[in-house]
Automatic annotation (TrEMBL):
Source lineage: Bacteria, Bacillati, Bacillota, Clostridia, Lachnospirales
UniProt xrefs under SUPFAM superfamilies: Actin-like ATPase domain
NCBIfam families, A to Z: PRK10719.1-3
Pfam families in UniProt: EutA
Protein name: Ethanolamine ammonia-lyase reactivating factor EutA
Length: 476
């Protein structure tokens, strides 16, 4: 039996705000007398909004009222009402996520429809989401290569590297099209790091100067060089480390990047060509696209066409896959239900190597920190490689060692496993933690990086829990 649900995605980015509606068809693909597995069998983007410049009151504050009016107008244009929607996502990304009233804006918009995934996507998480939107993960799996997506937006360039479909690393630089703004033919804003980059190369510009295309293009060439350094296509210079967002770290040099996709507003010009007026958007985004396209080091790396460019981060919202957990689960009383928990996925390679498992878990947990505080997160892995009693004791120790930050924090330890080992694994972890940490350990559920899960109250005398997996849908 098939069912259709409607979802909405709202992306409030550094440069642009946009909205998309999708129609999702879900169906139980399991046979009779088997635990249901409801999957999306069809997806259709039914409405794409206009693309708006994100309204700001100042360099540090979003104009929440104007954002809300944009969204309300697009609902009306699409013939949609909040009560028509079952799921969706509201995400604030890029420089906009750093505005001091970002969370207030999210809260006001999330009330407009359904049970939304609501998040201010930090630079690492945004890198993953935009890469999936561009199709970098799919290309890497299809071609068995290491593929990096560079999402060049208004304020930042987010990079995510996938190898054979698995996430290998992320980074983010303060390189973007709106870091120099143009108004009435003159420079109206220069981001301090870009001013420093220009001056280091002997170019002196100031707010109020006439916007000279040749001068600004030269600065964009240096910005493109920094992107080439970020993917190890050329050697990093002394300025490079200072251009990472929030003092972030570069990608590791391994695996070697075989190919690139580009997404973001700048990528739209990269793939589709320049407008007649290079300053049409009131910034240097068009010139940056040209500089990236002409960069000698970047041209040496194979480039795939992106599935999405300017709409990569959120092109639709909410796969709404409802599952029932396995019957071998373990959890602390009073911890359910929980909603909108982001997923951290460990690969099978990591799972088979105890040292790699612990190091990867510690590193990936950093992706889910906001202003130094770890958010609630669900740790997901297959559980296929630890099935005997002794192996499960080893796995329990690996989890406890790798998830130290979660265990020391206020949130419960949440484990989601594909194989049916949750009850014994949960018991083993409970013993190691001397029954002092609240935890949830469920199995029979499949989820990936970028997904969010809801876990409902236990049913069937507490033997199983309903689980909703929500994945940002990209128009691939």
């Amino acid at each position: 039996m098939k069912e259709t649900i409607l979802s909405v995605g709202i992306d409030i980015g550094t440069s642009t705000t946009q909205l998309i509606f999708s129609k999702l068809t879900i169906e139980n693909e399991a046979s009779s007398y088997v635990v249901p597995r409801i999957n999306i069998v069809d997806k259709e983007v039914t409405y794409r909004s206009k693309i708006y410049f994100t309204p700001l009151l100042s360099q540090t504050e979003i104009d929440a009222e104007k954002v809300k009016k944009i969204i309300e107008a697009e609902y009306k244009a699409a013939g949609m009402k909040p009560e028509d929607l079952q799921t969706g996502a509201v995400i604030i990304t890029g420089e906009t996520a750093r505005k001091h009233n970002a969370n207030t804006v999210l809260a006001s918009l999330s009330s407009m429809a359904g049970d939304f995934v609501v998040a201010t996507a930090g630079p690492d998480l945004e890198s993953v989401l935009s890469a999936k939107g561009a199709g970098a993960d799919a290309f890497s799996e299809e071609h068995r290569q290491a593929v990096a997506n560079i999402d060049i937006g208004g304020g930042t360039s987010n990079i995510a590297l996938f190898q054979k479909g698995n996430l290998k690393g992320t980074s983010c630089l303060d390189i973007g099209g709106r870091l120099i703004k143009i108004e009435n033919g003159r420079i109206s804003y220069i981001f301090p790091k870009i001013q420093k980059l220009a001056e280091a190369h002997g170019i002196h510009i100031a707010v109020g100067d006439r916007a000279e295309e040749t001068v600004l293009y030269k600065i964009c060439e240096y910005m493109a060089d920094q992107l080439a350094m970020a993917i190890h296509a050329r050697e990093a210079d002394s300025l490079h480390a200072g251009l990472y967002t929030n003092d972030g770290k570069p990608l590791t040099s391994e695996p070697k990047i075989d190919a690139i996709t580009y997404s973001g507003g700048v990528a739209s010009c990269y793939y589709n060509g320049e407008p007649a007026n290079v300053f049409e958007y009131g910034d240097v985004g068009v010139l940056l696209a040209r500089a990236v396209k002409n960069n000698a080091a970047l041209k040496q790396v194979l480039t795939y066409p992106a599935a999405e460019t300017i709409r990569a981060t959120v092109v639709g919202a909410g796969t709404h896959t409802t599952n029932v957990s396995g019957s071998t689960i373990s959890y602390s009383d009073g911890q359910l239900p929980i909603k909108n928990i982001p997923v951290l996925k460990l690969t099978e390679d990591e799972e088979q190597n105890p040292v790699m498992f612990k190091e990867s878990l510690r590193r990936k947990l950093k992706l889910y920190e906001t202003e130094g505080a770890l958010e609630q997160v669900a740790i997901v892995f297959s559980g296929r490689y630890h099935t005997s009693f002794l192996e499960i004791q080893e796995l329990a120790q690996m989890v406890v060692d790798g998830a130290e930050e979660v265990i020391a924090g206020p949130h419960p330890l949440i484990l989601v496993i594909e194989n049916d080992i949750a009850k014994v694994l949960g018991n083993a972890i409970n013993v190691l933690l001397k029954r002092q940490k609240k935890f949830i350990c469920i199995d029979g559920i499949f989820a990936n990086d970028g997904d969010y899960i809801d876990i409902g109250e236990p049913v069937a005398q507490g033997r199983v829990v309903p689980v909703v997996t929500k994945t940002l849908i990209f128009n691939t």
